[in-house]
């Protein structure tokens, strides 16, 4: 990754080659799994801002042809998202993205609704995504996080990503055209 980042008050600008993750757990687009390989990053301008209690984000990116085996021309895409806390323990979010036509794919729009609800040491989260592709155009995540201590976090979630249920086929952070469960345990080993 290389580029420039500038932060001023509640706005952060990042321009250059970078990893982008769109949607909950990268369900819409995530190129972090390719980091260090031929497709290491996308060229992008990314903006993150906070307006009151609302978190906003936007990006314009280009993935160059030949960087992934399925690309024979550049793919350009733009995205906008927001996250709004509607209560002290509840957040709602929305992500929109548009990718230009490439290969045999028509230009595609992707939309995602996200929500999470915290209670005690647990958090229930979910998202529903759909695209403008004609068929197999939906995806979802539903899961639970549990943090029994400040250092331990357990996560379990169910997902389903249909064949066209992401912004660019094969670039989801999950498993394209698959469904199943993930079971994750994270431990903070930092003494602080």
C-alpha Rg (nearest Å): 17 Å
Q: Summarize the biggest pleated sheet.
A: 11 strands, antiparallel
Could you tell me the strand content as a percent range? over 45%
Strand order of the largest sheet: 1-2-5-6-7-8-9-10-11-12-13
Q: Helix amount, in percent?
A: under 10%
How many β strands by DSSP? 13
Query: Rough shape?
Result: globular
Mean pLDDT: 88
Helix/strand/pairing category: mainly beta
Give the terminus-to-terminus CA distance: 28 Å
Low-confidence stretches: none
Order of helices and strands: EEEEEEEEEEEEE
Number of discrete helical segments:
0
What tags apply to this protein structure?
about 190 residues; mainly beta; 11-stranded antiparallel beta sheet; two-stranded antiparallel sheet; about 60% strand
Short account of what is shown:
The protein has 192 residues and is an all-beta fold. It has strands at residues 2-8, 11-18, 21-22, 29-30, 42-51, 54-63, 75-87, 90-99, 108-119, 122-131, 138-146, 152-161, 178-187.
